[in-house]
Amino acid sequence: MIIEAIIINGLMLGAIYSLLALGFTLIYGVSGVVNMAHGSLFMLAAYVFFVFTFQFPIGIFWASIVAVLATGIFGSILYRLLINPIINDEVAVLVVTVCAALILEQAVILQFGSYRKAVPSFVAGYVEILGVKVTYSMILAFIASLILFLILGIFLSKSKVGRAMRAVSQDREAAMLIGINTERLCMMTMAISAAIASIAGILITASKTGIAYPDMWQHPLYLSFAIVILGGLGSIKGTPIGAFIIAYAELAFMYLVPGAMSLAGAVVMAVMVLVLLIRPKGLFGKRIEME
Amino acid sequence: MVKRYFRAAYLSFLVHVVDIPPRFFAFLIFIIFLLFPITGPPESILLMMIIANLMAIYGASWDLLVGRTGQISLGHALFFGIGAYATALLYVYLNLQPWATIFIAALIGFVIALLIGFPCLRVKGPYLALVTMAFPLIMTGVVYYFKDITGGERGIYGIPRLFPFLNYNQQRFAEYYFTLILMLISSIIIYKIANSKTGIVFLSILDDELASKACGINVTKYKIMAFAISGLFASLAGAVNAHILSSASAASFTLTISFMPVIITIFGGIGTIYGPISAAYVLQILDRYLLYKVINVSTEWRTIIYVVIVIVLILKWPRGIARTAVDKLKDLEEARPVEVVYKKMKKKEESSGGSIHAPS
Predict the structure, then answer these.
(1) Which of A30, A13, A161, A43 is nearest to A112 (CA)?
(2) ipTM score here?
(3) What is the pTM of this model?
(4) B266 touching A, CB under 8 A?
(5) Which listed site, A54, B13, B39, B64, has its alpha carbon 20 to 30 Å from A273?
C-alpha cells in the first residue's frame, strides 16, 4: 500500500517537479544565468491566476493563459532591465535576481496581504489507481507536464529558435559569429523559461497545494536547485531524472519516516549534496573542464 | 624614553595613516564611531550600530572567501546560525559564561567549515553556490525536527547578555564598544590575512585555479583554509548577535541572512575587505535610520526602497561604493605632488625672465 502510494504519487510529483526545474535549467544552459527569481515567476503566475479567477473572474482557462503571458513578459523585462547589463558578473546576477525576488515578495504583501489565498483547482474529484487516491487535477497536471515536455523537445530540436538556443548554449562566441543575436535570444529564452515556470506555478498551486502566499517562491526555488544540480546544470535531459529522484526521495521519506514533515526539505538537499559528492558536475553535467 | 616611543608612534601614525587619504578618512570615521555614544543616542540607534558592527565582521568574512578566493558561498547563514545555536546550547546545557560560549561557538564554526569544506570544494562555480545554499536549509530541517533540544520554531530564549552586571542602558553602551573593538580586531585580522602571503595564494586561486595548481600550490588546502577562516568569523558574528538579542532562532538560517553579506559585499566592492565593512554601516544606517526613523515608511516599502537602491548601485557602480570612494581619495593623493611640481616649474619660469629658452 505504502509502496504503491509512493510509486504513483512520485510519478505525478516527478513530472510536475521536472516542469518546475525545466525553465531554470533552460535559462542557465543558454545564457549562464543562475536565476534566483525563478521561484518568484512561479509565485507571480499563481497570484495572477488568483486575481483572474476570483477578483476578475474570466474562467480558469483564460486565467491561466493570462497568467502565462504576463509572467513571460515579466521575465523578459526582468532580463532586459536587470540581468543583461551585468550578464558577465556571476555574483552580481545572483544578487540582482534575489533582489528582484524580494521586491516581488514585498509587492505581493502590499497588494494582497501576507495571509494565504485559496486558489481554485481545475477539476474536482479523484480516482483510485491500485488503491491509491489520485485527484483528477493531479492527473491533469501530470498529463500537461508530459505534453509540455514533448512540445519543448520538438521546439528545441526542430524549430529555428530552438536550434539557435542550443547553438548558444554550446558555444556563445561561435553562435555570435554565425549571426545569432544572442542578446535577443537570451531574452526570448528568459520569456520561455518564465512561461514554463508559470505553468508549473499554476499547476502546482491549483492541483497540489491550493494556496498562494507571499513567500511561496522559496520552496520551488530550492527544489529547482536540487533538481537541476542533480541532473547537471544546463542539461535538459538530466532535469526529469533529477526531478524523479527528488520526488521519490521526498515521498519515500515522508511515507516511511513518521513525523518527519519538517525534514522533507532537508532530505531533498541532503540527497543533492550526496550526489554531488560522487559526481561533482551532476548526473548529466557538462564534463569539459580538465582536472 | 617613553617620550621617544610616543614620538616614534606619532611619526608612524603620520606616515601610515595621515599621509594616505583613504586611511586618514577611515581614521576620522573611526574617531566619530568611538565618540558618538557620548552624545547620548537613543537605544535603537545604539542597537543599530551594534548590529552594523556585527554585519561588518560577517560581510568581511564572506568577502575573504568569495572576493579573494572566488569560492561563491550563498549559505553563509549556516555559520551565522551555527554560531548562534552553539552559544545558546552551550549556555543552556553547560551553563558557560558568554565569553567562553562565544569563543567555543567561533571554534565550532571553524570546525564545521572544515568538515563542510571538504565535500563542498570539490564542486565549482554555480554548483558550489547552490550547494552551499543547501546547508542552511538542512540545518533548518534539523532544528525543527529536534524540537526538544533546539526549541523548534520558537528558538532558544533568555541567553544572558554580554555584560549582565551592568544596568540596562549601560549594557548597550558596553556592548557597542565591545562589538566595535571586536569588529576592529576581526577586520584587521581578515585584512592582514588577505594581504599576507596566504592572501596572495588566495588571489592566485581566484585568478586561475589551474595555473596555481601548476605552480605547485595545494589548491584544496588553501580553499579549505579560506572557508574555515570565513566560517570562524561568521559564527563569531552569529554568536555575539545571539547574546545581543538574547535569543537564537531558526531565523538565522534563512535566505535573508545568507544574502546579507552578499548584498553588503557587492554594495561596498567585492574583494576589498574594507568594502563590506563600510557598506555594513551605510546600509544599516540607510535601512534602520533613514528609511525607518526619518521617513518612517511601512516595512514592505522599506524593503523595496532598500533593495531598489542596492540594485541601482550594482548596475551603476559595479565596483562598489567603498572602492569607488577610495579610488577617488587615492586620486587626491596622486594629484598633490604633480601640482607641487607644476607650481615649482611656474616659479622657475618667472624667475628666469619669462622664457624657458636659455639666452643664446
Answers:
(1) A43
(2) 0.80
(3) 0.84
(4) yes
(5) B64
